[in-house]
């Protein structure tokens, strides 16, 4: 199953704020983590459009595990390498222990146009992931 990934994070190289994965059938995972010191750009452009209450990292990882393990195989598509980095970091549970997932592959895909044009709510990870999915299948 293809899953389309988008993340919002606190500036270049910053911590994860939100993550969305949308499958080919439009079933999705979307969660938001607290961001204690957002950059001014994130404060003005991301925080206002999160549209979901924050949860702690433990609950985030439990919800992600449940979502991912509904599939036999996963092919994750993203349009930015940092999204993969943030996703993979969430799979680490503690030193030497990672989340078990179905067989997983990844594809870095570049669209001809900006996804923010297609997103119903730009900088909202869920809406951006839906936009990525739509653009991918054009």
Order of helices and strands: EEEHHEHEEEHH
Helix content: 25-40%
Class derived from helix and strand content: alpha/beta
Rg, nearest Å: 14 Å
Overall domain count? 1
Number of helices: 5
What is the name of the CATH architecture? 2-Layer Sandwich
Strand order of the largest sheet: 3-2-1-4-7
Largest sheet: 5 strands, mixed
CATH class category label: Alpha Beta
The CATH superfamily is Ribonuclease H-like superfamily/Ribonuclease H
Q: What is the name of the CATH topology?
A: Nucleotidyltransferase, domain 5
Distance between the termini: 18 Å
Number of strands: 7
| Mean pLDDT over all positions | 95
Strand content is 25-35%
Poorly predicted regions are none
Q: How would you describe the shape?
A: globular
């Amino acid at each position: 199953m293809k899953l389309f990934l988008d993340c919002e994070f606190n500036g270049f190289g910053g911590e994860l704020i939100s993550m969305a994965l949308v499958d080919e059938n439009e079933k999705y995972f979307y969660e938001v983590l607290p961001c204690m010191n957002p950059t001014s750009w994130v404060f003005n452009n991301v925080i206002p459009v999160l549209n979901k209450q924050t949860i702690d990292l433990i609950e985030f990882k439990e919800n992600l595990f449940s979502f991912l393990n509904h599939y036999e195989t996963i092919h994750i598509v993203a349009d930015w390498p940092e999204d993969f980095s943030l996703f993979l970091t969430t799979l680490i549970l503690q030193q030497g222990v990672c989340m078990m997932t179905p067989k997983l592959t990844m594809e870095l895909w570049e669209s001809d146009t900006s996804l923010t044009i297609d997103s119903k709510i730009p900088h909202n990870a869920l809406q951006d992931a839906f936009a990525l999915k739509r653009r991918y299948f054009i």
